[in-house]
Design a protein that fits this description.
This protein is an all-alpha fold. The chain has helices spanning 13-19, 27-54, 56-85. The chain folds into two domains: 8-54, no CATH class; 56-86. 76% of the residues lie in helices and 0% in strands. The chain crosses the membrane at residues 39-56.
Amino acid sequence: MGKRETEPTRRDAPLILWVLPGHRLGAVRRDGPQMVKKVLTWGGIAFLVFFIAYRPDSAADVFQSLGSTVGDIARGFGDFFTGLLA
């Protein structure tokens, strides 16, 4: 006796998940990058909290350096547009 046609085979099982009522087509592909983004975001926040809590002086130096860099970039754009319009 052969298998009945209504029984899914192991190879067909992922296809069934794609067509179950209430599931969007391709939902697995769209949720994957969002989950990675969420994990990396929370990991970054946890790292920042840990860094600030255990090395506050180093954290202050890093943020001061970042602020200085952003200021230098803004000043560069300002100088560029001033030279462009002058």
